[in-house]
Write a structure and sequence with these properties.
Blueprint (H helix, E strand, L loop, with lengths): L1 E2 L5 E2 L6 H25 L3 H7 L5 H33 L1 H21 L3 H14 L2 H11 L6 H29 L3 H20 L20 H8 L6 H29 L3 H30 L1 H21 L6 H24 L7 H30 L11 H20 L5
Antiparallel strand pairs: 1-2
Amino acid sequence: MGVSGDGAAIPATPGGAAARRRALTVILLTILINMIGVGLAWPILPKLVQSMGSGAVSEAAAAYAVIGTIYALAQFLFGPLIGMLSDRFGRRPVMLVSLAGLAADYVFAALAPNLVWLAFARLLGGILGATLPTANAYVTDISEPADRARIFGLIGAAFGLGFILGPLIGGVLGAIDIRLPFWAAAAMAAVNLVLAWAFLPESLAPQNRRTDLVAREANPLASLRKIGRFPALTPLLIALLITATAQRGLEATWVLYTEFRFGWTVRDAAFSLAFVGVMYVIVQGGLVGPVVRLVGDWRTVIAGFAISCVSLAFYGLADHGWMVYPLIAGYVLGNGLGAPALTALCSKSVDDDRQGQLQGTLQAVNALAIILGPLLASLVLAHVSAPDPVLAVPGLWFIAGAVAFIVSIGLALRARPATM
């Protein structure tokens, strides 16, 4: 059961179904507004980095790798701590602090006169930006295990809808002023903070909160080792890590890569990101639930990752911009089905009173992917976009991503119960 903002319980009974639906609606709205703000700033950030240097793609990619690593390290180091705090004090206060931190991050980025200030802004955002993992723990509190894949799919749909609106608005605003999208994102985060303060109830009942917090569990590596004691979970976490690494690298270099490969403007890249959002809404909002019910979590992961593998391989070979759109559709279909099912499998592998810790650990895994993915992908892009690369393969990162998904399929098959 959950608890409301005034401490009253949200009962896990038929009579509490309406309260749980209202709570789910509010958390989905919070994610939607948050992701609109993120979508506003995301396609512009590499261009802001580029504007602070010589303008060369190879130089901007290298600088962006450093800034992205700072952000990811902060998330990796603080993710488990944020998850533990939500297990102890509830999801609502952690969500509110995270939203306030995002607003501050965007303000600092909008004001940043140089790369050092911009790096500080991303450091702040990495420390406090635990919105999505906390939201995942929230919906775990108010949902039944059998329904979690569908609800994680709805979260993905809210995520995708935010990325329809955010990049479109950000592309238009960025054409006016490169810093304007960051001011708009800060305003969105502030609005979200007010809405969450007013309408977001607490989901974790006092009797379900942890009282045995151990300092060493806040160590992200220690947290990973502890969760790794569940044998069925370890290969799933590895699969999550390597697929997320491929995904985060793709995201981080998309704007600069499409400029280098296809000559796209920031508006062209923003429109393609909006199309990504459209596809995520279709796949995670409408397909995840029915597909999981039809074939199960395990088969959804395996089939989805196979589709993603093929799409990434063709990404690496594409040499015209128009080819990107059908490949986006295929990749999002595969990853949009596989990733929520994989997250649901992880959540079913731990006890209810450890869900916040699990989500913090999943954030740590994702943050580790954000360290590795943008760093490696940006260095790869810096190399292939240089005047005389040793490996003249522009789509090298995408081909490597296809290999990562093949490995993940093998891990999922290894972890699957023999009776499946």
